[in-house]
């Protein structure tokens, strides 16, 4: 009993250091998981991809700091650890330069934000919806339902076409009644839109006769605008010019 007690007294400081190191290590690992979960939930409300990326970065950083602190508690010189980590890091960087390139590309994708989660993108010959961006890779759900995982450097070195950022066209439609027709009535209607000041594309305009009644011929007109802000100008110009150019118009009704 006395021998055991003497051993305990002799190695008391070492045992306390080990116990303290275990407590610090356990607490550090718990906090690393807790912080990762908290940051991910907090940032994911604004941007899921950004939340996932930053939470993983904090998780890895916190684990490294926990490891250094734990070893320092055991009496290991942390300066030597940092120097050793630097040497190991350089060796790993040379051996895994492609992976580090993917990591750097992942950071660029997060900072420059060429796309976000659920965006439909075309990258090279691949097209699909963005599911997630991790530290080293990006997941894309292809149109056939398969999940494709690409290294971030491959994505960053390709042309990225974000189809979700295309300007959505706005449409405006009218039902126009013309009492007496001319041979070039449809051409006159079309000219209102393609001539200055509107200068719209003929492919964005559809004009067709839809019926004949006692008042005359009904024409359905549909116009697409690249920029929604053009719609008021298109409406005002068409109504004013149509009534001036075609005196035979009896009514113009906008179709909502």
Automatic annotation (TrEMBL):
The main place the protein resides is membrane
Record's keyword terms, sorted: Membrane, Transmembrane, Transmembrane helix
The protein's matches in SUPFAM superfamilies, at most eight in alphabetical order, are given as:
Mechanosensitive channel protein MscS (YggB), transmembrane region (SSF82861), Sm-like ribonucleoproteins (SSF50182)
GO cellular component terms attached to this protein's record:
membrane
Please give the start and end residues of each transmembrane region: 14-35, 47-68, 74-96
| Stretches assigned to coiled coil | none
Q: Which Pfam families match?
A: MS_channel_2nd
The topology of this chain with respect to the membrane is: Multi-pass membrane protein
Gene3D superfamilies this protein is in? 1.10.287.1260, 2.30.30.60
Q: Any idea where the Mechanosensitive ion channel MscS domain is?
A: 98-164
Q: Where is it located?
A: Membrane
Q: What InterPro entries does this protein's entry cite?
A: LSM_dom_sf, MscS_archaea/bacteria_type, MscS_beta-dom_sf, MscS_channel_2nd, MscS_channel_TM-2
Q: Which GO terms describe its molecular function?
A: mechanosensitive monoatomic ion channel activity
Q: What PANTHER family does the record point to?
A: SMALL-CONDUCTANCE MECHANOSENSITIVE CHANNEL
| Family that this chain belongs to | Belongs to the MscS (TC 1.A.23) family.
The protein here is known as: Mechanosensitive ion channel MscS domain-containing protein
- Organism, per UniProt? Helicobacter enhydrae
